[in-house]
Amino acid sequence: FSPAIAIIEQPVSVSVPVGYSFTLRCRAQGRTSLQYQWFCQYQSDCRLIPGATNQDLPIIAEQTQLYTCRVNDLHRNAVFSDWVKVEVHQCVARGLPPRLWQGEPVIVLNPSEQRVEVGQPLQLQCAAMGVPAPSYQWYRNGNLLEQQKRKKLWISHTKVSDSGTYLCCASNSHGEHWTNAVDVHIGEILPLPERLHLFHSVFVLATGKVALLVGNNRYQHHPNLVAPVRDVFELSRLLQHLGFQVVSLLD
Q: Poorest-confidence range of 5-19, 39-53, 127-141, 186-200?
């Protein structure tokens, strides 16, 4: 027994810059002649695409949407293709994609360095263009992280052992490309009395330039911020390079 309609070529997801032109393809076999109809979904709104009744659907990328193709025969049998995602990057640096781009992965967002308190969440993010859309794999200190296969790496409760150098590989059928490597520092933040004691000790013993950096991360009526932690870390490194003795406090 064979199905009345069998899809022999599914459309594939893509990740492209805004304004990019490409074609989604669907191929099917049946016992009678077949008819095609494409649909798209943006957020919760799913609609038929008027006039999209061919095997190929030409698209000029405007916004991220989902697409599927319905195939039916003369006996009212119908099947749907896989849903595929057309991810559209609105803000891509000039020169991307490179000339004569064949769809190989191109990194458009690199992860940033993080310093996180033990027990707090860690999020690293990257993004790549590609046709077909790239798959992702994160690594820490060169070791594959089996569960981290999305653009966003998420660890809900960090441990000291989560510290290390992270990077992500984006790959598709045309090749692979790696993000920049970034350092992630997970460590206990000293209780306030111990921080004040350390602060006092540094100033008592200091004979040169001293810098006090305070990054406020948590607010009562505002979501937790990430930038202050990163900024304090970057400023600390810069000031130390300039010969300052640095005391960094958070919250």
A: 186-200
Question: How far, CA to CA in Å, does 48 sit from each of 37, 44, 72, 141?
Answer: 8, 13, 15, 47
CA distance 191 to 193: 6
| pTM (2 d.p.) | 0.71
**Interatomic CA distance for residues 251 and 244, integer angstroms:** 22
Cβ proximity of 246 and 240 under 8 Å: yes
CATH superfamily of the domain spanning 6-89: Immunoglobulins (2.60.40.10)
Fill in the amino acid letter for 36.
Y
Contact 131, 14 (CB under 8 A): yes
Mean pLDDT score, 227-251: 70
Domains 6-89 and 106-187 share a fold: yes
CB 73 within 8 A of CB 30: yes
What class, spelled out in words, does domain 106-187 have in CATH?
mainly beta
